[in-house]
Amino acid sequence: MDIAENVRAVQQAIAAVSGGRAVTLVAATKMNDAARIRAAIAAGVDACGENRVQEFLEKYAQGAYSGAPKHFIGHLQQNKVNKLVGRVDLIQSVDSPALLRAIGRRAVALGLRQDILIEISIAGEAQKSGIPPAALPELLALAGRTEGVFVRGLMCVPPILEKNGSNRRYFVAMRQLFVDNGEKKYDNVSMDFLSMGMSDDYVEAVAEGANMVRVGSAIFGARNYAAPQGSAAPAETSGNIL
Ligand SMILES: *Cc1c(COP(=O)(O)O)cnc(C)c1O
Q1: Over the stretch 191-234, which tens digit does the pLDDT of each residue have?
Q2: Count of helix runs (H) and strand runs (E) in the chain
Q3: Residue 233 lies in a domain
């Protein structure tokens, strides 16, 4: 399992369908330790995305993400917002007015502006995070009235892939939502990123308009839930999403 080789293969597969568009490759780093994350950064991934606040903070303190922008891509509880705002470059998974407001409050207290994406429940699965597409205009309008947040686009986690091609209609629907809402003018909103596609379907997602993909196992191999985590190193920050 060579991380650098895998990163190159993913980059090539993206390039083959992107038609020259820039696509941000976010390494989904959950369950991978600092050494493996550094290998992915050295191989040229554009950013690192973590799912759990505690795991992010531990690896952040180890300097695991040095040189790469940091994204949060998992479900975010409001009581963890203060630990995250200002430490990550992009929170991809904002899925309620209350969470958006809490992020704004913390960002204002720190004197900064937090970039976020709005997570959409595109397949309407009850157990999944994300807002229904119909709720998007209202949340974007709220962002316009909320200091400290800046919406940079949309994100989705479609259903587990059952067969090749089965998520294509969700990607198409996301792309339409992205375009339609990008044409409206809201304060604190710039529809720059459409984050969709994971290891099993990122090629399809890019073909349907994604310009940000979150890829884990195709870079790092299958996650080993039995293995211990981590090693120590200095802390760091980076300023940009890209
Ligand atoms: C784990 C994860 C990914 C990547 O999943 P893979 O199938 O390993 O590529 C992408 N997005 C989110 C939100 C994740 O939690």
Answers
A1: 999 999 999 999 999 999 999 999 999 999 988 777 655 443 33
A2: 9, 8
A3: no
What pLDDT score does 84 carry? 98
| Residue 227: inside a domain | no
pTM (whole model) above 0.70: yes
Q: Domain of residue 120: give its range.
A: 3-220
What is the C-alpha separation between 79 and 147, in angstroms, rounded? 19
SS3 134: helix
Residue 229 forms part of a structural domain: no
Which CATH number covers residue 94?
3.20.20.10
**What total number of domains does the chain contain?**
1
Å from CA of 197 to ligand 1 middle: 8
Q: Is residue 228 part of a domain?
A: no
CA-derived radius of gyration, the chain: 17
* Residue-level pLDDT at 109: 98
Of 1, 73, 94, the residue with max ligand 1 atoms within 8 A of its CB, to mutate for a pocket test, comes to 73
User: Which ligand 1 atom sits nearest the alpha carbon of residue 30?
Assistant: 1
Among candidates 216, 133, 137, 214, which has minimal Cα distance to 172? 133
The minimum-distance atom of ligand 1 relative to the CA of 51 is 15
- Report the nearest atom of ligand 1 relative to the CA of 215: 9
